[in-house]
Structure prediction request, 217 residues.
Amino acid sequence: MSPAPSDSLGAMSKVTCQISMSLDGYISGPDESGFEHLFEWYGNGDLVVKTAMPDLTMSMTEMGAAHFREQIETCGALVVGRKLYDYTNAWGGRHPMDVPVVVLTHNPPGPDTGTNWHLKQEQIVLRNTGAKPRTIGGWLIRDKANHRYRVPAGFTLKPGRYVRLHTGTGANDANDLFWGQGWYVWNNDGDKAVVKNKNGRRVDRCTYTGGGASTRC
Prediction:
């Protein structure tokens, strides 16, 4: 879930959405079938294309290889859903494109055991999409049950940067803040995040109803 401060938001960073699709506009068949046809272009040529995974080498046409290489060269990071992350078993710890992968999820992987590792996987993300640094020290974040977190005084987000607020315990830095809770805050079956500035004025909110691993607002 990603509630973002909206008073003083500007242009967002460039994001490219890419997915393999059939000519008639489908990304899967009934019951999530047909992927072998969608990704046939990975192996329908004679040009060998290596990836960051030694056991995953593709055989593409010249046109397909050129497109694939362009995506690798221009991609700084990938944002994926939890379902794909789980389906691929996290690509064995290294994505074939060899770039950082951000998994959008409000339901951390594995059972809800309450260990600090699991609590740190539950997180929300605040992003500054404006053109100027944004001081958010003193801002309040709360859920529907009124669990409250106050951003440390003086904390600043630079343009285009984000900070993750983890439910568990850890050491705060410029990229990660830790709530220090001993149990989960964000409910899997639905919740609401409210963000207020240090003067108590609401600047954003995000509501989800469950049924998925992540929500973007």
Summary: Confidence is low (pLDDT under 50) at residues 1-12. The CA atoms of residues 40 and 60 lie 9 Å apart.
